[in-house]
Amino acid sequence: MGRRLYVGNLPYKATDEELNALFSQAGTVDSVRVMRDMATGRARGFAFVEMATDEDAQKAINEFHQYQMEGRPLVVNEAKPKPEGGGGRGFGGGGGRDFGGDYSGGRRREPRW
Asked: What residues does 75 pair with on adjacent strands?
């Protein structure tokens, strides 16, 4: 069992401090990081919490998985390592775009080369 926990289905206004206070009830918290959108700064609805020991981490899972926070049942489980290669991100195009052209008003424009 790892000490790093994934906490999902967070209310968007949840803060590092709130999660630290909550998870401290299960044991010693080493760190909390609510993940935020880089462009807007808005919380993305999940966080990572690192507990001091495996026992504290297991206790936090037992106590806070499905815990109601502002009407939302939290998802708390062991954080999985990020897969090699970034999980397939970076492929595909943006919605409504084709080779650098743009999509507007229901008609497709030819790409500008």
From this structure: 8
